[in-house]
Design goal:
By secondary structure, this protein is α+β, with helices and mostly antiparallel strands. 31% of the residues lie in helices and 36% in strands. It is elongated, with a radius of gyration of 36 Å.
Amino acid sequence: MRRSNHLRPINNTESHVVYQVMNLCEQRDNKPTQMIMKAAFRGSTTDELRFLDGKFTYQNSLNYTAQEIKPYLELAMWRLETVYYPACIETLQNCLKKRGTQVKRKVKPRVRLIQKANSDSGGFRVSCLATGFYPRHINLTLFRDGQPVSDHEITGGDLLPNGDGTYQMRKSLEISADEHKYTCSATHLSLDNKLDVTLEYDHGEPFKSVIPSVLTVLLALMIVFGAAAFIWKRRRADSLKNGYSSPSNVCAKIPPS
């Protein structure tokens, strides 16, 4: 398989190969910005050509020499600037006209800071979840005692789509049974100010937060059962009393023979 008549062939012994090309363009503040063209061979990116402000930048992972790549690159730049870029921008602008209301809408994120026990590590996992927001760009930051948590400690952070056209993002942190104050901060175009959600939890006593509720329920049950037992005893006592007095009353009404 050859990339171009000017380039040396790529070694391949398989009967079927996959060669992919992706073109995309951007528009910000109603102005066209850059266009990117990427090529991939068997799932790995081989070329990336960017066009921004009339300038080109090119990267390739196949170690072609400048002499080998020059004819191919000249043709690729001409196509990108004169054909692909205008066509892509025109298509993008037409799409924005038809779907402008939907594209320009702003939906506030719902942010939660959740802590769950991790049975594998014996510790806990703190997760900051933001969902239901639009547009897609959001800044989600986890803080420990007021300081940002290092990126290498964070897992997740991928932007995922929801079924209603909005997006979601989750960032998680594995922690041990120590005492810290964790905060999740979200910044989004739909928010006037950043949104902070705080979790305060005593990790040394994982059930401490539910103890007051459990005690309240137990106390209420004790009161109910105590009142029921008291009423039952009173009624039983009255029933026995009435049962013993009934024969004397009946006999009193029988006239003497």
